[in-house]
Write a structure and sequence with these properties.
Elements lengths: L5 E4 L3 H12 L2 E7 L17 E8 L2 E7 L13 E3 L4 H12 L3 E7 L6 E6 L5 E6 L4
Parallel strand pairs: 1-4, 5-8
Antiparallel strand pairs: 2-3, 3-4, 6-7, 7-8
Length: 136
């Protein structure tokens, strides 16, 4: 069994997934707009170019998402997407890249449980945590 985060966006899923692909070194496996699908009739004409489903593969894991048509979108809350790199330099890189133009909640730093830990909300409104290895 796999646990796969599925993120909902307010019309900027395509931009978010292209950004995540660049930052995380993954590969977008699929990105499908509402247009041309059975779901096209369920959304307004100006929403049909938005993303019905996207899948980003990172190693052997996936991150999925879509644009939630108005009025179904809800701001993400009550969770964080957590990345656990083993290398502190990679933790630094990920934090800097993903938090760019976002809101830092806790700067990346050494803690009693981790070599590096930090929290932020990215420019697309998705909450993230970086948790790198045990503190020595």
């Amino acid at each position: 069994m796999r646990l796969t985060p599925y993120l909902h966006f307010n019309g900027n899923c395509e931009a978010a997934f292209k950004f995540y692909e660049k930052c995380l070194g993954g590969k977008i496996q699929g990105m499908f707009a509402y247009e041309g699908t059975p779901g096209a009739e369920q959304v307004s004409a100006n929403w049909r170019s938005k993303i019905m489903h996207a899948c980003l593969i990172i190693g052997d894991q996936a991150l999925m998402g879509s644009d939630s048509p108005p009025p179904h979108y809800q701001k993400p809350q009550g969770f964080s997407v957590t990345l656990s790199p083993r290398d502190p330099a990679e933790a630094d890189r990920l934090f800097q890249a993903l938090s760019e133009n976002g809101t830092i909640k806790m700067p990346l730093q050494k803690t009693f449980w981790a070599e590096r830990f930090g929290m932020f909300t990215d420019r697309f409104g998705v909450p993230w945590m970086i948790n790198c290895g045990p503190s020595a």
